Amino acid sequence: MLTHHRKPVCLSLVSTDLPIWSVVETAATLYQKDRDRFHLLLTEPAIEEQEPAFPVASASGATAASPRLLWLEISPQRVIMTMQGNGKLSYRHLWERGIYGLSRYWLNNELSHGNGQIRLRNYTISLTLEGRPLPEHLRLEYELWSEKVQLGHYILSLEIHH
């Protein structure tokens, strides 16, 4: 039986070798699929865009950023994170302990000429899920790769407060 709980969460992404750091604190809905399988659904605040070099007028005359929906599928062996909903960028990451997973980004704009997909590989160094019966902490350490070029070392951390 599918059960759900509304919980405050803190999701952070940090690069250990690049100046990248992001934190989202919000409420999320935690769905328990099985004993060790969970889905976490949260709305990420919209990213404010800078003024474009060549402004494009919209019907309302303003450019409003929309919130983004993050969906995490969590188990002790695998994490899948999907972001969608702002109309310009979507992504999906698959991390599994000790293997190369896939990170895909979709760019949806006038310049993408159709597909607009970027595929990268990620190597999961460690994946730790703590908490019983509901998860309380997820720590995921991984490297991002494009062909044979490493694009950084990252740590994704999720705190689920009870």
What does this entry look like structurally?
The protein has 162 residues and is an all-beta fold. The protein has a single domain, classed as Calycin beta-barrel core domain (Lipocalin, Beta Barrel), CATH 2.40.128.20. Helices cover 0% and strands 60% of the residues. The chain has no helices and ten strands. It has a ten-stranded antiparallel β-barrel. Strand 5 and strand 6 form a beta hairpin. It is globular.
Q: Characterize the overall form.
A: globular
Compute the number of strand runs: 10
**Largest beta sheet: what is the strand line-up?**
1-2-3-4-5-6-7-8-9-10
Number of individual domains: 1
Percentage of residues in strands = over 45%
The helix tally amounts to 0
